[in-house]
Specification:
Chain D: It comes from Amycolatopsis endophytica. The complex is a heteropentamer of chains A (about 270), B (about 375), C (about 400), D (about 270) and E (about 300). With about 270 residues, chain A is of the alpha/beta class. Chain A has 10 helices and 10 strands. Chain A has a 6-stranded mixed β-sheet with strand order 6-7-8-3-9-10, with helices on both faces. By secondary structure, chain B is mainly α. The longest helix of chain B has 27 residues, at about 230-255. The chains are: A alpha/beta (about 270), B mainly alpha (about 375), C alpha/beta (about 400), D alpha/beta (about 270), E mainly alpha (about 300). The structure holds adenosine-5'-triphosphate (2 copies), leucine (LEU) and magnesium ion (MG) (2 copies).
């Protein structure tokens, strides 16, 4: 069996020298798999992705313990440029497109580390096929796109890198229902072509429907993990992430009562 | 035994107090004590004048911080308004002989009017473009100061002969209970009282409706508009208030120095103010004061103790290779770089860190 | 009464007993302040000038000091030629000194003046503005800039081949120093009946003078009187040379420095430039003061290059010494005592290095009205050769001095 | 599915009460892009009106026109009888139109309470002068409005975050804070641009609950833009579906949900 | 007419220098989103390095120029290594202040090494001139114009054929997102600082080789180039060149016709004309002639 593309071992991350956000988190993305990461807001999912790509520095964050390995290579604390050249691409939280340049130019930045012109052109054509909306807006300044269009651009930009491992931080955010399905299909398709995927999603239904394996993170630690199918069947997961009430029938949101649910796996 | 719940807040008014916590109350008391006692301990004219200049800079910096730190409008034109204040004082306090409170107000009013004229530029220009336009103001100003002979004395400059008495209390020649104090001692008290006053006013402004509006405009002006803040109005208001405060600082500067000439209000002065608010910390009143002390006192310290540093040339013909001033500037530059690399939020940021350190002590996280 | 300048050995014994200790005088050493641009663009003047102060006092101290027993020590501070810095530095040292033997720069002097008045402090300005003459708290030396300008015009119209119908122009620094030169020329214009055809003002520190030179050339100027400091002057003359603009230039004394004689523009300067200043060329044996000064420089500051400003500083120190001698004689080195002494020193002679100065109370002082003209000559030590020594025009005698109206 | 309606919402199409908002024939173009193409709709008092449509359909653009951020090339917008077109955003806010933003419009460096206080900006009077002087009018006003803000803090359960800079708030909380700020404006029309995007299930349910409560207590009219169909279908009284700036359908949620054009353009298989 | 042409030539020569300096500003702005206040200091440093190579070490002037540009570029890149790399993603204000700090360090360093004296750079141009049609062309001015033109062409070709320009804009807009694309912010900073420093050095040497020699105040020219940069548009290299030439001409022409046309406005109007022109243009076009506007959408 080939080694996992990504293995995170006992990772600890501290912001601002005082805020401990990841507390010994470990996970693995096997080669060619889709792994999803679930967890409440503020659990540290984005922080984990930052740690992997080396983007903690601009946030005054630091890895204080643990290792991150990419295949055979240790990339703990490596420079982002180096990590990207290792074949990682990322859809960042909050889209982070370059608002002042055109859609085309944004896509070109995604292919910054790639050399072969023909292959880049191929990727470009594929992105255009996946998101026809972008084709019409190729020369528009990206900042004027609608929210969802920007999200498509962000995904498209990551695809331009044709990575070995794709990190997705809430790719479905702000997308129309039909597009969410498309994005799901895209992820599956990319994965089929050999790209491993680490998917962070609030839309757990979507995430678990395509992932092979899932982790649940709470306050910086993995509190549960298992094959996606097992998680889908888990009572707690069903209640807290999938919105299915015990008796199977979905509640109407208009009927949610004024009570607060505070149950957590860990305090 | 310490009383429990000493931090308990019982109503909103209490929650809004500036010096609410016991620590900050203690700090306030200490600052007031230092303010009262310092001039009687440090009688040396040099150190007093350094502190007086630092105080004047603090006043001006609070004004700039209001504009840049709170409202997000970068201005390189602060020197212009400082100069204007000094010239207004030469006229109002010197030639017309108005009493101290009146010429101070006149200077502030003059600054506000000029700010009101320039302010509308902020409606059209953003960021660096605005900064460079205000930089142009410095050059236009210098041209005006040179050519408006009647008002400014032209190239020869003008003496500023404004008295600093409030009723019977003359700060230039204080005597309290038969004890008489030097001009610098009196000025120290005067200037630092004004620092406190301006700091308080601006702090008040910052924590009420207009102050919040300014910060909203800084963070996102479009969103601010949508929730009902007339961004343009607040930008102009900030410009006017800031330049009024700048002119107040200029008024103090002029009357303390007693003589002003056109080339003092140059870009370097503007940059110095920018340095003060960035080193101090943007968007904090206390930071402006810290920054002014740092930027004002550090060169003086280096200057005073330069003779012990090897390689420094303190007099003509000795063997040093770098002059005191050059060394001063170099150290100053290095410290700024070092500082901001370590703490981009400036002195106020360091202050915050110290506070959180003690708050969370002994736990590092 | 011709007060000695403290130069004769063992001169001036104090009959009135020893002066008491006071600010800047601890009973043995007299401290004097020096506020000078030791860095910045005018440092090329401030440094030699301060060195001149120092060499004079070193020589004096070697002979025993003021009144043969009080050593003089200088407290130097760098003003960078910036008025506000000068004021701050003044505040820094005023508590340590009895007087200031150098306060360089017209703008700086004006800036410090209010404080001098309030503190009853005496300072010797290292600049030649006409305003200094009537100022109690200042101890000027030399013929003012205005007088230099007038003498220069006199020379141009009488021996320099100029006529009053010639296109006479000025190029002056846009500050008080420039105003002084301009005022002199305007006075001369009235006296001699010419008009100033064109005036160009420039801001000190400008890098490009093509426009001004173009304008002067366009106006057909035949003579240009220049009031500048060396940094700017070099660029101005360089630009003129490049533009092939070749009027007669007269330059105010502080516009020249020795580096020019070795530069690419030296031939141009040689051909067209006359410098109006005082005293004589460096190393001129025929002037007694010069021989002595060169000796002393060689002894106390061997590394110092020949320099006009050195001589200026040296002379300033001489005037200040006359005041100190007098004050010691009167038994009072306090600020009041110094001011009083400054009124009573009478005429001080500078041994031909500068015109004699009749001191006295400020409203009766009479400064020298004489100037010396130099031409540029790279072969000379300072690059200047005497063209016309120590002459005084009729018009210059007429010039009236008034008190600064600040 | 259920369409229970806890609020005594007036029948939207009722002939008697005139609508609070009437939008007619709205057209907005950017260069070659037509963001809105003759869109008309009306929102009744107390009605919760939803707007859905694919990405880039023009939903946010409608809000921007209502707010005065964009100026439509054509069309009229009438709020309570007064025209909105051509007015400055701040003036429109003062007329009672409040809004939350799709991409978070909080002021990052201000605390949550300050952000909420800003919502009350147009209800307050303190100017530069009185603000500086503090004691007296300014202080009284601050205290009074602070009390009002605290009610919202309580309603939205934001207590633990009062003093946190908005920029550091967890995403879900930030979205809630935006809602709070809009409510603090005491609006008569509330525009919600994707209020639950990026929220997890729990937070979505919370937000739904707040919206229901707000409706019940304040009875104000709302326009909801959202891609989370559960929220739209469960809460909205009526739905407008847009595609490429053109209104393709309006009706009750159940009608829209099964509308073929809407399914084709927007819903796909995920109904 | 000749006077006019003479003035135009002077303006063009001055404008070329402005263009070089402004181009340096633009390069750094494009990659870091800040105005580099140290540009004047780098210019002075380059000029003094040129002096050292050409006068002290007696290296042929053409080579000395290259050496000076190269060593200035090293200094710029070194600045990135020591300082800027730690500032990736930090607030722009802090970075602006750091450039001011750098200026404060450079100035005294230069005067400590080279002093305040007026230095003469050994060079073949100096005050030499050629005359044609009644107009005197300074050899130095001709070279300045020619070199500027060459550099500008090289500059545009470089950006045309490398992806660096795009990387710069991305980095300036959002350094973190740029990093995530594998764009090394450090390299971008280093390269842009190196280019800007080399441009500054070139401007410095061509100035220093002119009439009047070299003094530390040479760096002030950068202030005069602010209007040039902003008038063209902060992020537009073509704008920098255009702005430089417009400002140079405006300044030289007002200077030349000060007496005839502008005496009412006081002496030395030419000093403020660049700023006035800049203000007027910015009021009409708030992002300069060719600058791109901020993109804001809610
Ligand atoms: N720059 C920072 N400085 C200090 N604390 C931070 C910083 N960035 C994030 N945090 C804190 O770290 C914790 C984890 O944040 P992170 O963004 O990784 O969560 P997340 O799981 O991605 O949440 P979400 O689902 O909202 O995206 C949060 O409590 C957050 O407040
Ligand atoms: N300021 C602008 N300049 C240019 N085009 C714009 C501008 N604002 C919006 N658009 C375009 O108008 C169209 C509608 O945008 P809008 O933001 O209204 O979409 P939306 O329906 O809110 O989409 P989403 O669901 O993705 O948020 C989009 O194609 C967008 O690119
Ligand atoms: C010594 C000189 C440089 C002084 C200068 N000329 C001035 O009056 O300011
Ligand atoms: Mg996240
Ligand atoms: Mg939208």
């Amino acid at each position: 069996m080939s080694p996992p593309v990504l293995s995170v071992n006992n990772l600890e991350v501290v912001y601002d020298d005082v805020v401990l956000v990841l507390r010994g988190l470990s996970l693995e993305v096997p080669d060619g798999a889709i792994v999803t990461l679930l967890g409440a807001n503020g659990a540290g999912k984005t922080t984990l992705l930052r740690a992997i790509t080396g983007l903690l520095m601009p946030h005054r964050g630091k890895i204080t313990k643990g290792t991150i390995r990419l295949g055979e290579d240790d990339i703990t604390g490596a420079d982002p440029a180096v990590v990207v050249r290792h074949g990682i691409a990322q859809v960042m939280e909050g889209r982070r497109i370059f608002a002042e340049i055109t859609v085309d130019e944004n896509l070109r930045t995604g292919a910054y580390t790639r050399r072969g012109r023909a292959e880049v052109r191929e990727s470009y054509a594929r992105v255009m096929d996946l998101f026809p909306v972008l084709r019409n807006r190729r020369r528009s300044i990206a900042g004027y796109l609608s929210g969802g269009e920007q999200q498509m651009l962000a995904i498209g930009r990551a695809l331009m890198a044709s990575p070995e491992l794709l990190l997705l931080d809430e790719p479905s955010l702000g997308l129309a229902p039909k597009l969410v399905e498309q994005v799901r299909d895209i992820i599956v398709e990319i994965n089929g072509q050999g790209t491993s995927v680490l998917l962070v999603e609030q839309n757990a239904v979507m995430a678990l429907s395509i992932a092979g394996f899932g982790y649940v993170v709470e306050t910086g630690k993995v509190v549960q993990d298992g094959p996606a199918a097992d998680l889908l069947a888990d009572e707690d997961i069903r209640e807290f992430y999938l919105g299915a009430a015990q008796h199977g029938q979905r509640r109407s949101l208009a009927d949610v009562k004024s009570y607060r649910r505070k149950k957590r796996w860990s305090a | 035994m310490p009383k429990p719940h000493r931090n308990l807040v019982r109503d909103y008014a209490q929650d809004l107090r500036l010096f609410g916590s016991p620590m900050s109350k203690l700090g306030l008391v200490l600052m007031i004590a230092a303010f009262l006692v310092l001039p009687t301990v440090v009688q040396d004219d040099f150190w007093l004048s350094v502190l007086i200049y630092a105080g004047i800079t603090a006043v001006g910096a609070i004004g700039l911080n209001l504009l840049t730190g709170y409202c997000g409008q970068i201005s390189l034109g602060h020197a212009f308004f400082i100069g204007a204040g000094a010239y207004v004082t030469a006229k109002a306090g010197g030639d017309f002989g108005l009493p101290f409170p009146l010429w101070l107000l006149a200077a502030a009013a003059g600054g506000a009017v000029l700010g009101g004229l320039i302010g509308p530029f902020t409606l059209r220009l953003r960021g660096h473009y605005l900064a460079i336009v205000t930089l142009g103001l410095v050059f236009l100003g210098e041209h005006l100061w040179r050519n408006l002979d009647d008002f400014t004395g032209g190239n020869s400059g003008t003496s500023v002969d404004a008295d600093v008495a409030i009723g019977p209390v003359n700060f230039a020649d204080l005597s309290i209970f038969g004890e008489s104090y030097s001009r610098n001692q009196g000025w120290f008290w005067l200037v630092w009282t004004l620092v406190g006053l301006v700091a308080l006013l601006v702090k008040n402004l910052a924590r009420t409706r207009p102050g919040r509006a300014l910060q909203a405009v800084r963070d996102r002006d479009q969103a601010a508009e949508v929730i009902g803040v007339r961004a343009g109005r607040y930008k102009i208001g900030a410009f006017m208030t800031s330049s009024a405060i700048a002119s107040t600082a200029g008024a103090l500067f002029g009357s303390y120095q007693q003589f002003v000439s056109p080339d003092e209000w140059n870009l370097l002065l503007s940059i110095q103010y920018i340095a003060v608010i960035i080193v101090g910390g943007l968007g904090t009143v206390f930071g402006s004061v810290l920054g002014a002390l740092f930027v004002g006192a550090l060169p003086a310290l280096i200057d005073r103790y330069s003779d012990v540093i090897p390689g420094v040339r303190t007099s003509v013909g000795d063997s040093g290779f770098i002059s005191v001033f050059a060394l001063n500037q170099a150290i100053f530059g290095l410290l700024i770089v070092l500082f901001l690399v370590l703490e981009p939020r400036g002195l106020a940021g360091i202050w915050l860190r110290i506070k959180t350190y003690f708050k969370t002590w002994p736990f590092s996280y | 009464a011709c007060g000695g300048a403290g130069d004769d050995e063992g001169g001036g014994g104090g009959q009135a007993g020893n002066p008491g200790t006071t600010t800047g005088f601890d009973g043995t050493t007299i401290k004097l302040g020096v506020l000078s641009p030791l860095s910045g663009p005018v440092a090329v003047i401030g440094q030699p000038l301060t060195s001149g102060n120092q060499v004079w006092f070193d020589a004096l101290n070697a002979r025993g000091g003021v009144a043969g027993k009080y050593k003089v020590e200088l407290v130097q501070e760098d003003t960078q030629y910036r008025p506000e810095v000068a004021v701050q530095q003044y505040n820094k040292v005023k508590g340590d000194v009895v007087a200031f033997t150098q306060l360089l720069g017209t703008p700086s002097t004006l800036a410090v003046l209010p404080q001098l008045r309030a503190d009853k402090m005496l300072a010797a300005p290292a600049s030649l503005d006409a305003l200094w003459v009537r100022e109690e708290n200042l101890l000027p030396v030399g013929a003012p800039y205005q007088v230099q300008a007038i003498n220069a015009m006199d020379h141009y119209l009488t021996e320099g081949g100029g006529t009053k119908d010639a296109k006479i122009c000025t190029m002056v620094q846009d500050d008080v120093y420039g105003e002084a030169g301009q005022a002199g020329i305007e006075f001369a214009a009235k006296s001699y009946g010419f008009t100033v055809a064109n005036t160009q003002r420039f801001k000190s520190g400008t890098e490009n003078y093509a426009g001004q030179i173009g304008a002067l050339a366009g106006a057909g100027c035949q003579l240009v009187f220049l009031t500048a400091t060396p940094t700017d002057a070099a660029k101005i003359w360089g630009t003129a040379a490049q533009a092939r603009f070749a009027p007669r230039w007269y330059g105010q004394s502080p516009s020249y420095t020795s580096a020019f004689a070795k530069s690419a523009i030296a031939p141009y300067l040689q051909a067209y430039v006359t410098i109006v200043a005082e005293g004589t060329e460096w190393g001129d044996d025929s002037v007694p003061g010069m021989t002595e000064m060169v000796d002393r420089k060689n002894r106390f500051a061997p590394q110092q290059e020949p320099d006009y400003y050195f001589a200026f500083g040296y002379n300033q120190a001489r005037a200040m010494t006359a005041v100190l001698e007098k004050a010691v004689e009167l038994g009072d080195l306090s600020r009041d005592g110094i001011l009083k002494a400054s009124r009573e020193i009478g005429t001080v002679s500078f041994d031909g290095l500068m015109g004699d100065y009749e001191y006295g109370s400020a409203d009766t002082r009479n400064p020298p009205r004489s100037s010396t003209l130099f031409k540029v000559d790279p072969a000379k030590p300072f690059g200047l050769a005497t063209l016309k020594y120590n002459f005084s025009s009729q018009a210059a005698q007429q010039y009236q001095f008034t008190k600064a109206n600040l | 599915m259920t369409t229970s309606d806890p609020a005594p919402a007036p029948e939207a199409e009722s002939e008697t009460a005139p609508p609070i908002l009437d939008v007619r024939d709205l057209t907005l173009r950017f260069g070659g892009v037509t963001a809105l193409d003759g869109v008309s709709f009306a929102v009744g008092r107390g009605e919760l009106f939803a707007v859905i449509g694919p990405n880039g359909a023009g939903k946010t653009s409608i809000f921007n026109c209502l707010n005065g951020v964009y100026r439509p090339q054509q069309g009229t917008i009438t709020l309570d009888g007064g025209s909105l077109v051509g007015r400055a955003p701040a003036a429109i806010a003062a007329m009672g139109v409040a809004r939350t933003f799709q991409n978070l419009g909080l002021f990052e460096h201000l605390t949550l309470v300050e952000n909420l206080m800003l919502g009350r900006h147009h209800l307050m009077r303190t100017g530069f002068g009185t603000g500086m002087l503090w004691w007296g009018r300014a202080k009284r006003e601050e205290v009074r409005h602070r009390a009002a803000v605290e009610e919202i803090v309580e309603l939205l359960e934001l207590e633990p975050y009062r003093r946190m800079p908005a920029g550091l708030l967890p995403y879900g909380v930030a979205k809630r804070a935006e809602l709070g700020r809009a409510l603090a404006m005491e609006p008569s029309l509330l525009l919600l641009d994707e209020p639950v995007a990026g929220m997890n299930l729990e937070e979505t349910e919370d937000t739904a609950r707040y919206l229901v409560e707000v409706r019940r207590e304040l009875g104000l009219a709302m326009i909801l833009v959202e891609h989370d169909m559960r929220l739209v279908m469960d809460l909205a009284d009526r739905v407008l579906a847009l595609d490429f700036g053109v209104a393709i359908a309006t009706g009750k949620p159940s009608e829209i949900q099964n509308h073929p054009a809407v399914i084709e353009a927007y819903l796909g298989g995920a109904r | 007419m000749t006077t006019f042409l003479q003035n135009c030539f002077a303006g063009l020569a001055l404008g070329s220098t402005y263009a070089l300096v402004a181009l340096g500003f633009v390069v750094i702005y494009k990659s870091t989103g800040v105005i580099n206040f140290a540009q004047g200091g780098l210019l002075a440093l380059g000029a003094y390095l040129g002096y050292t190579f050409s006068t002290n070490l007696a290296i042929a002037f053409g080579v000395a120029i290259l050496l000076a540009c190269a060593s200035a570029a090293l200094v710029g890149a070194g600045f990135e290594r020591i300082v800027l790399r730690r500032m990736v993603g930090q607030p722009p204000f802090a970075v602006i202040m750091i450039t001011i700090g750098l200026l404060f360090v450079l100035e005294p360093l230069i005067t400590a090494i080279w002093g305040f004296d007026n230095l003469q750079v050994t060079n073949p141009w100096n005050i030499r001139t050629v005359e044609a049609g009644g107009i005197v062309f300074g050899v130095r001015d001709l070279w300045t114009i020619g070199l500027t033109a060459a550099v500008v062409v090289a500059f545009f070709l470089f950006f045309r054929y490398t992806s660096l320009g795009l990387a710069m804009r991305a980095t300036a807009f959002d350094p973190e997102a740029a990093l995530a694309q594998g764009i090394s912010a450090r390299r971008v900073y280093a390269v842009s600082w190196a280019i800007a420093s080399a441009l500054a050095a070139l401007a410095g040497i061509t100035m220093a080789a002119g009439p009047g020699g070299l003094t530390p105040s040479i760096g002030f020219i950068a202030l005069a180039a602010f209007p040039a940069m902003i008038l063209g548009g902060l992020d537009s290299p073509a704008g920098a060149v255009l702005g430089g030439i417009v400002i140079g001409l405006a300044e030289a022409l007002t200077r030349g016709y000060q007496d005839q046309l502008f005496s009412w406005a006081g002496d030395n109007v030419s000093i403020i004309v660049p700023y006035l022109l800049m203000i007027v243009i910015l009021l009409i076009r708030p992002y300069g002639l060719l600058g791109t506007k901020d993109v804001r959408r809610i």
